[in-house]
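Message: Study each token:
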Amino acid sequence: MSAGTSSFTEFLTSVHPEMLPGHRLPESGAAGHLTPDATTIVALTFPGGVLLAGDRRATQGNVIANRDMEKVFRTDEFSAVAIAGSAGFGIELARLYQVELEHYEKMEGRSLTLEGKANKLAQMVRGNLGLAMQGFVMIPLFVGFDENTAQGRVFSYDAVGGRYEEHRYHSIGSGSVYARGSIKKLYTDDLDETTAIKVALESLYDAADDDSATGGPDLHRKIFPLIDVITEDGHRRIPAEDVARLATEVVEGRATDPDGPTASLS
């Protein structure tokens, strides 16, 4: 049972390959059955850090399968990942990735660089190609604080493991077009952390306004987006009460201005 490698995924491949997400292919015809899909994720950088936020809704065809799904995961002290697409496989991939980074650090006595973490995730997404070809596509959005440059960075992926660095902001999922358009009109390079959180909440509200698969802030059930912030001090999840307060401000603002804030033309 000696690992013999700093990659937990390689170790698992040699010992129990059937436990890997991409190796447990569904039975024939399974793709015809609807499975829950995770929807909209947004990420944006601000001076000294990066933010990752996700709505809580999962859909199953035209039905809301889950109202409070967790799609945003801490992967280590200076990075986080969120998933869109096939929820079950995506969550499994995110948790395996957490173990992958922890295993590497234990075996090597040091952490991967942020570039290395992004590349490792690309390899794991590529390993899911068999499932993706059957319609079970899962796409991650990876963010982290680069200790070498003291900046937050955002990485997106395609279904075959292609890795792309995004600049300033990005969004994935069914409501991503609307969320990205919302961020585009509100984003500035000098956002502070609190304002960046409000921009993310505004974008998720706009996505929910136009995309039925995206869930906006639910004041009655007290279900709000999950927001992770990563700076030089490390990763932290924004407390639920703080997100609730800011989300309530956004919802109340939409009561008087349904289309939300607009960009300044000055």
Summary: The chain is about 35% helix and 25% strand.
